[in-house]
């Protein structure tokens, strides 16, 4: 950058001085006054943050998410608080009533996760993005980082708020222990954010918003619904497994509200989600490198 | 400088781009011409690392596109006017592109000003007309003040004022020493902007020539003559050693003839002329002739086919 040229695109067009095409040997080429910065993941993260905050679908999905988690949470709390008396709740903690809002709200996070990647294919923005950042892996990594952070923080704030209100509201219930607090706030938020990250990876693979959302809603609900209608006793084992590993049941584990006594417990759902997400995200990275944009 | 070397793209059996080799040089506007479906956009996508070539290579100033660390400062590209999220404002669209390449925020305001969109910077892109979308795409291309600019059909959807603006923009960018590569399917548009031409048809290189050479080679000049005494005129012209071609509508066409000369000949022999006009075959015609073999999607003419169905499948 020793000889910065003052010329910029809007400067007086020099061609007017020399009309007609010129076939003289081309000059040394243009040198821009804008400094060259080697780009890294940080640039891509800043870019993705601008993208996610500047579209309305983010505000809508997150707005509805907060509304569902907080609204249903408070409603459940109010109903339980008015209809139970001392001792009714047995060994339950007040935290467990946050489950309903999170279960429904997770669909919003799934939608936002899918939209983060798939909507770029729908609009054609992906080509602009990939031209600006030819390192495809970096784009997907930046999307994953930004989305995960947003989903985790929003879930944590909503779930944390509901948990605090519930515990204050339902003094008939057992006081939750420290680990129970951690699971019902940080644990469940990590799980929901991972579910969103899985959706983001599926969106990147499917490249079609509606298709990817449908798949993810299916993953969320289908095992449970199918298991409900498995009456045959020969399918008992499968039915049990579907129940235990269905996402709603795994979510319930964080609230000690599991459908069955066996199956995943403690922090297991988080490790399962982590494994599945890692595999699918890995596939998304591999396919992104391989396919044409 | 952009170098293509044996660039090939196959989609299954179909070959979209077939062994394309050419160089796009800095300092001039290079027109990339071909009928619809010739493989122009596919070639451009491969240049930008969006599509992986089946064979061959593209180098940008000697490097592969995906090795560029700050690509927007090397290449600015307008691929299509829809390459943006409709729900995002023009400013935010450009901002996220700028951030991904470490370009300062102030530059976003500059390019918005350059393309005349400052007034609608906060408006959502989906409310934009085709022409405004095109301008926003061009703003994105200019963002990094790049040495190479690539425009895919930039005049599509622009009004005459916009077309004029983009022509001047491309010429001034080239005059600053930048490489300007612009695709079009309109020869007439290229004749006004491009200094050099790369013509492809069905993915293959048909011509790689300077605009001046192309015009010299392909623009046939002739004189059109119409007379009620056609037969006598023919005799007179033959007598003078002038070759005449009969045009379809009863007129005669004299290649490389001078209108004055023919007029004087006719006067000498007391022939009545109804028309005597020097003509120049348009570049559009020359382009259509060049690509006639390779146009993929023909409109069917009313004339019955001269060859049996399927005869044209075998290539000579």
From TrEMBL, chain A:
MF terms in GO: ABC-type transporter activity
Protein name: ABC transporter
Organism, scientific name: Streptomyces humidus
Xref: PANTHER family: INTEGRAL MEMBRANE PROTEIN-RELATED, MEMBRANE PROTEIN
Pfam families xref list: ABC2_membrane_4
Chain coiled-coil ranges: none
Stretches that traverse the bilayer: 59-82, 94-118, 139-164, 184-206, 213-232, 270-288
Keyword terms, alphabetized: Membrane, Transmembrane, Transmembrane helix
Record bears the keyword Thylakoid: no
Any GO CC annotation of this UniProt entry: plasma membrane
TrEMBL record, chain B:
CDD domains noted in UniProt: ABC_BcrA_bacitracin_resist (cd03268)
Family annotation (InterPro entries): AAA+_ATPase (IPR003593), ABC_transporter-like_ATP-bd (IPR003439), P-loop_NTPase (IPR027417)
Stated name of the protein: ABC transporter ATP-binding protein
Taxonomy, superkingdom: Bacteria
Domain ABC transporter span(s) in chain numbering: 2-227
GO MF annotation, one: ATP hydrolysis activity
Entry-linked SMART domains: AAA (SM00382)
Homology family: Belongs to the ABC transporter superfamily.
A Pfam family annotated for this UniProt entry: ABC_tran
Record carries keyword Membrane: no
Keywords associated with the record: ATP-binding, Nucleotide-binding, Transport
């Amino acid at each position: 950058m020793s000889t910065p040229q003052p010329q910029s695109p809007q400067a007086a067009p020099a061609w007017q001085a020399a009309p007609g095409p010129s076939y003289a040997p081309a000059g040394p080429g243009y040198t821009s006054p804008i400094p060259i910065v080697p780009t890294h993941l940080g640039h891509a993260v800043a870019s993705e943050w601008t993208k996610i905050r500047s579209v309305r679908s983010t505000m809508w999905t997150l707005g509805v998410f907060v509304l569902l988690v907080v609204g249903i949470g408070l409603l459940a709390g109010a109903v339980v608080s008015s209809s139970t008396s001392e001792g009714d709740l047995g060994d339950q903690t007040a935290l467990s009533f946050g489950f309903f809002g999170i279960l429904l709200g997770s669909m919003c996070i799934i939608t936002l996760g899918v939209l983060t990647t798939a909507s770029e294919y729908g609009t054609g923005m992906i080509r602009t993005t990939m031209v600006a950042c030819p390192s495809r892996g970096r784009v997907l990594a930046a999307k994953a980082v930004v989305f995960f952070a947003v989903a985790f923080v929003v879930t944590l704030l909503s779930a944390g708020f509901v948990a605090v209100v519930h515990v204050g509201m339902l003094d008939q219930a057992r006081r939750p222990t420290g680990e129970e607090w951690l699971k019902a706030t940080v644990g469940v938020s990590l799980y929901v954010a991972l579910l969103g990250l899985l959706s983001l990876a599926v969106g990147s693979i499917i490249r079609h918003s509606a298709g990817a959302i449908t798949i993810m809603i299916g993953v969320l609900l289908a095992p449970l619904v199918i298991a409900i209608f498995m009456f045959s006793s020969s399918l008992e084992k499968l039915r049990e497994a579907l129940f235990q590993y269905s996402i709603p049941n795994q979510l319930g584990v964080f609230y000690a509200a599991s459908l069955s006594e066996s199956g995943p417990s403690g922090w297991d759902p988080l490790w399962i989600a982590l494994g599945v997400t890692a595999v699918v995200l890995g596939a998304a990275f591999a396919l992104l490198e391989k396919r044409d944009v | 400088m952009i170098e293509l070397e044996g660039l090939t793209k196959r989609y299954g059996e179909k070959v979209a781009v077939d062994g394309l080799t050419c160089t796009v040089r800095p300092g001039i506007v290079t027109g990339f011409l071909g009928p619809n479906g010739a493989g122009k956009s596919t070639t451009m996508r491969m240049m930008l690392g969006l599509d992986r070539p089946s064979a061959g290579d593209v180098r940008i100033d000697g490097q592969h596109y995906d090795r560029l660390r700050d690509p927007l400062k090397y290449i600015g590209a307008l691929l299509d006017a829809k390459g943006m999220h409709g729900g995002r404002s023009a400013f935010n669209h450009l901002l996220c592109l700028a951030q991904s390449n470490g370009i300062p925020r102030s530059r976003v305001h500059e390019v918005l000003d350059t393309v005349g969109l400052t007034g609608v910077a906060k408006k959502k892109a989906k409310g934009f007309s085709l022409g405004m979308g095109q301008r926003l795409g061009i703003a994105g291309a200019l963002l990094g003040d790049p040495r190479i600019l690539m425009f895919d059909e930039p005049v599509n959807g622009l009004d005459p004022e916009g077309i004029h603006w983009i022509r001047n923009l491309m010429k001034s960018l080239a005059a600053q020493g930048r490489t300007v590569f612009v695709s079009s399917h309109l020869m007439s548009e290229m004749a006004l902007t491009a200094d050099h031409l790369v013509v492809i048809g069905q993915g293959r290189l048909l011509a790689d020539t300077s605009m001046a050479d192309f015009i010299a080679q392909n623009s046939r000049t002739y004189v059109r003559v119409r007379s009620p005494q056609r037969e006598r005129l023919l005799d007179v012209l033959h007598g003078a050693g002038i070759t005449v071609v009969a045009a379809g509508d009863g007129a005669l066409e004299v290649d490389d003839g001078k209108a004055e000369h023919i007029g004087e000949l006719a006067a000498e022999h007391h022939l009545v002329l109804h028309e005597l006009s020097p003509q120049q075959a348009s570049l559009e015609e020359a382009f259509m002739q060049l690509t006639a073999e390779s146009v993929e999607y023909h409109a069917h003419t009313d004339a019955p086919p001269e060859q049996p169905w399927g005869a044209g499948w075998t290539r000579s």
